[in-house]
Write a structure and sequence with these properties.
There is one protein chain. The longest helix is centred in the C-terminal third of the chain and has 27 residues. It is built from 4 helices and 7 strands, in the order βαβββααβββα. It has a 4-stranded mixed beta sheet with strand order 1-2-4-3. Strands 5-6-7 form a 3-stranded antiparallel beta sheet. The two termini are 24 Å apart. The mean pLDDT is 90. The protein is globular. The protein has a single domain, classed as Collagenase (Catalytic Domain). By secondary structure, the chain is α/β, with parallel strands linked by helices. Helix 3 crosses helix 4.
Length: 161
């Protein structure tokens, strides 16, 4: 897997980003060697939220190229010692898994989840229903356990060296 980070980040932060991306993709995606994940931290995003996954080759049933975009506000939690950025990174990696395995697919006015279509008026997610969408239910239901599992393995590696 190729991981591209657009910003020049502290090496510890950069290593953690790469470690989480690899951890989640290795857990869920049988062969991620051909995948590319780009990470971009931006002043403002094109939607209401702190993070988004964009499958760059969205027309493919099994996309291999993704861009993860995070808001500066969310990324600032790293400097404060919080876990929110890391949890969100795990959450967004679950969405990458969903796209890569063709469980989730965006269309101009709908989203397909495991064969069922969800209408998106004006091509946008209904924020009032956001937590009820099944792809979000899955991502939220596993993010904390995945993060804690990664954190345990990352800490074990860190103390072993």
């Amino acid at each position: 897997m190729q991981i591209i980070q657009y910003q020049d980040l502290d090496s510890n932060v950069s290593d953690k980003i790469q470690s989480i991306i690899n951890f989640v993709s290795n857990k869920y995606i049988f062969d991620s060697t051909e995948m590319t994940v780009s990470v971009d931290i931006r002043d403002n995003l094109d939607f209401d939220g702190h993070a988004v996954v964009d499958p760059c080759d969205e027309d493919d049933d099994y996309p291999l190229n993704f861009e993860l975009e995070f808001s500066d506000a969310l990324f600032s939690t790293v400097e404060l010692g919080g876990d929110q950025f890391w949890l969100t990174l795990v959450h967004e990696m679950v969405h990458i898994k969903q796209f890569a395995l063709n469980e989730l697919r965006n269309f101009p006015k709908s989203i397909r989840w495991n064969g069922k279509f969800y209408r998106m008026p004006n091509g946008k997610i209904d924020l009032a229903k956001y937590l009820d969408y099944p792809w979000e239910v899955e991502a939220y239901s596993v993010e904390k356990n995945l993060y804690n599992e990664w954190k345990t393995s990352y800490t074990a590696l860190d103390t072993a060296t």
